[in-house]
Design goal:
The complex is a heterodimer of chains A (104) and B (398). By secondary structure, chain A is mostly beta strands. Chain A has one domain: Rieske [2Fe-2S] iron-sulphur domain (Rieske Iron-sulfur Protein, 3-layer Sandwich). In chain A, 0% of the residues lie in helices and 46% in strands. Chain B has 398 residues and is an alpha/beta fold. The chains are: A mainly beta (104), B alpha/beta (398). The structure holds flavin-adenine dinucleotide (FAD) and FE2/S2 (inorganic) cluster. FE2/S2 (inorganic) cluster binds next to loops of chain A.
């Protein structure tokens, strides 16, 4: 079962950046890559409960703002200590300038 | 002699653990033995002093991950001696073990100055458990030293309604690395939270009743903790005849003068930008652990990762990239919400250091960009650094 929800407008996210999106007590991160593709992951780092939205996006890597743990936001794979547990990712589609994510 | 030779790592802290896993990530298939004096599963030290979770154990990796990686972890076991001429180590359980390559990652130990013998210190989980157990509302804590660990502990104590006095010999806090303007932010916050800060105050003695200052004043306390820095654990290296300055001296690859022995993390003193430094930094310990593992397998690259450090006090976050030079001017960049970054330029016209503080993770993104600019020696002007209209990330992208 999918559960698509409207997360934000395309223009809410700058290129090669991310924003935080909260929904019904859950928190997500919505990314726009330098190639203008959209992705979504859990909003909190897997090392400690820190919002990734304050972190830096370079290419396909999100760097956690707290201790620099790194993840590939397309697959959620951990790419640098102290991050070692994968980030959960969510399917994304863009429909008439809105970014939708499947949080099921 | 017992046991097959392979890679032996002394010290199961942040650096040693990272090195052990990195040996496997690099494809090494021989025996990897990680020997740690502490009885606990290796844990992270930074949380010990910080906030709500202070004193709780946050392990670096679960036990199964060592098994899966084929890493033999010997806990509560001390290396007593390095017998370099035989390429073996002697352990506290009476056994000896041969190595092909040895990594010394023994870290550092909390210091105490004369007169402070009766004070507690905070370096290990056991230290933290003993200190945090005394944090009851209304208890009186005296912290000797206004450095990171003492101040983090002071903040944690205030959050638990403990009365806190911090005694610092210098005329300001965190004088060793943090620029004055940022230290002032923390000073104001500690005072606002009700911490009694005694600056330019020297300790004469610590006793049952608390602290006696050199000027005769008494600070009554139920618990006294000294946070006056840490000394590198170089004893094994010295006994083995390796060169030791402030830390075990290593070259650009983190190798000692003995080609089979490497040293990394808080215990080592390494070349950095034409000089030598020893850092007490969690990320440096990780980076050097990874680097040392590669070097042990023969890689020739120089360790050159830019230093990066953080501290958390209350909801204020501090981050420093590069090594600030007190003799150079600071370039100020004010961010929204009271956050502030202070940059320094080197003689080469590239960034030398960036220090920032603000609520939560307000400075993280900019410090992370700055760190990469320092690493890659990206040319930048003082005007660009000061102007919040200049997008630093675009400079990085060139
Ligand atoms: C309370 C606290 C808060 C901190 N906060 C921060 C922070 O916010 N940011 C930051 O960047 N850094 C922080 N640090 C510093 C950081 O924790 C250290 O830089 C890091 O732990 C260094 O790792 P290491 O592996 O080199 O040494 P250590 O972590 O000290 O590990 C060395 C290990 O070797 C063992 N050992 C020593 N001799 C022997 C022997 N002969 N045989 C067997 N084992 C031996 C020791 O028991 C120890 O377990 C903090 C440190 C403390 C104590
Ligand atoms: S909280 Fe993200 S790396 Fe530590």
């Amino acid at each position: 079962m999918s559960e698509w929800i409207d997360a934000c407008a395309v223009d809410d996210v700058e290129e090669e950046d991310l924003i935080r999106f909260d929904h019904e007590g859950r928190t997500f991160a919505i990314y726009r890559s330098h190639e203008n593709a959209f992705y979504a992951t859990d909003g909190l780092c897997t090392h400690e409960h820190v919002h990734l939205a304050d972190g830096l996006v370079m290419d396909h890597i999100i760097e956690c703002p707290k201790h620099n743990g790194r993840f590939d936001y397309r697959s959620g794979e951990a790419r640098g200590a102290p991050a070692c547990v994968k980030l959960k990712t969510y399917p994304v589609q863009v429909k008439s300038d809105r970014v939708l994510i499947d949080i099921a | 002699m017992s046991g097959a030779s392979g890679m032996i790592i002394i010290g199961a802290g942040e650096c040693g653990v990272r090195a052990a896993f990195a040996l496997r990530e690099e494809g090494y298939g021989g025996p990897v033995t990680l020997i740690g004096a502490e009885p606990h599963l290796p844990y992270e030290r930074p949380p010990l002093s910080k906030g709500a979770a202070a004193g709780a154990q946050k392990i670096i990796a679960g036990e199964s991950r060592y098994d899966e990686a084929g890493i033999t972890l010997r806990r509560a076991t001390r290396v007593e001696r390095i017998e370099a001429n035989r390429r073996q180590v002697a352990l506290s359980d009476g056994t000896t073990h041969a190595y092909d390559k040895l990594l010394i990652a023994t870290g550092a130990q909390a210091r105490r100055f004369p007169g402070m013998e009766a004070a507690r210190t905070l370096r290990s989980l056991d230290d933290a458990e003993a200190i945090l157990a005394a944090f009851r509302p209304g208890a009186r804590l005296a912290v000797v030293g206004g450095g990171f660990i003492g101040l983090e502990l002071a903040a944690t104590a205030r959050e638990r309604h403990v009365d806190v006095t911090v005694i610092e010999a210098a005329d300001r806090l965190m004088a060793r690395i943090v620029p004055a303007a940022l230290a002032a932010m923390f000073e104001a916050r500690h005072r606002a939270e009700g911490v009694a800060l005694l600056l330019s105050a020297t300790v004469a003695s610590v006793g049952e009743e608390g602290v006696v200052l050199a000027d005769g004043r008494h600070v009554e306390a139920d618990l006294v903790v000294a946070g006056v820095g840490a000394a590198p654990d170089t004893q094994l290296a010295e006994q083995a005849g390796l060169a030791v300055g402030d830390g075990i001296l290593v070259d650009h690859r983190l190798q000692t003068a003995d080609a089979s022995i490497f040293a990394a993390g808080d215990c080592c003193n390494f070349p950095y930008r034409g000089g030598r430094v020893r850092l007490e930094s969690w990320r440096c310990a990780q980076d050097q652990g990874t680097h040392a593992a590669r070097a042990m397998l023969g890689a020739d690259e120089a360790f050159s990762r830019t230093p990066w450090f953080w501290s958390d006090q209350y909801d204020l976050g501090l981050q420093v990239a590069g090594l600030p030079d007190p003799a150079r001017p600071f370039i100020r960049r004010d961010l929204a919400g009271g956050a502030l970054i202070l940059f320094q330029l080197g003689d080469d016209g590239a960034l030398l250091s960036a220090s920032g503080a603000g609520p939560g993770n307000a400075v993280a993104k900019q410090i992370s960009i700055a760190e990469k600019m320092i690493q890659r020696a990206v040319p930048v002007s003082a005007g660009q650094l000061a102007d919040t209209g200049t997008n630093l990330k675009s400079l990085l992208k060139g």
